[in-house]
Design goal:
Elements (H helix, E strand, L loop, with lengths): L9 E6 L7 E5 L2 E7 L4 H21 L4 H15 L8 E5 L7 E4 L4 E5 L7 H16 L5 H7 L5 H16 L10
Parallel strand pairs: 1-3, 4-6
Antiparallel strand pairs: 2-3, 5-6
Length: 179
């Protein structure tokens, strides 16, 4: 089974016509796993884990484009901010090496650092939601953090980003071939 609980609800669909193959795909916020009808519950659990891991690996290799990022922002705003945060632009940038994201409320623009590409989806969602919240509340006061309380993986994403930042500050130890 997958090491992490899925970020999306999982729906298993059994098919009498399906004999040996197992496949999975995302359908909105849901993950659909297609399995043969004759498969046991234990095999189902194992295959769901395998397919969730495969989807996560595939999604980790393919970063969202700017258009997909904009769609993701609209989805997150609707889900966690009652649709009140409506950015005019959402895009990846390569000139942010000390910040994960930035927002200009007056322009309605959100920029995410390219360094987030390839990180887990929940981390990118957290940074995007963080910047969306800035469209509603400019600073980092109590009202701002109240907006982020609705996102269930805020603390985990912040911990992940802190770990990445800490790792970047570690001295580089030469590998065996560099010595």
């Amino acid at each position: 089974m997958s090491a992490d609980p899925p970020d999306h609800p999982v729906e298993v669909r059994r098919s009498a016509r399906r004999r040996r193959t197992v496949s999975a795909y995302r359908e909105g916020e849901r993950t659909v796993v297609l399995i043969p009808a004759r498969m046991s519950e234990a095999e189902e659990r194992r295959w769901v884990g395998v397919m969730l891991d495969k989807l996560a690996a595939r999604e980790g290799r393919r970063p969202l484009g700017d258009a997909e990022l904009t769609e993701r922002a609209a989805l997150l705003s609707g889900q966690y901010l009652d649709g009140r945060a409506r950015p005019r632009t959402v895009r990846w940038v390569t000139n942010q090496n000390t910040r994960w994201g930035s927002c200009t409320p007056a322009e309605g623009s959100i920029r995410l650092s390219h360094r987030l590409q390839g990180m887990p989806e929940y981390v990118v969602d957290y940074v995007l939601l963080h910047e969306l919240a800035h469209l509603l509340v400019p600073g980092h006061g109590p009202r701002f953090w109240e907006l982020l309380e609705a996102y269930p993986r805020t603390e985990r994403a912040r911990g992940y980003l802190e770990g990445v930042a800490a790792a970047e500050r570690l001295p580089k130890v030469p590998g065996p071939r560099e010595r």
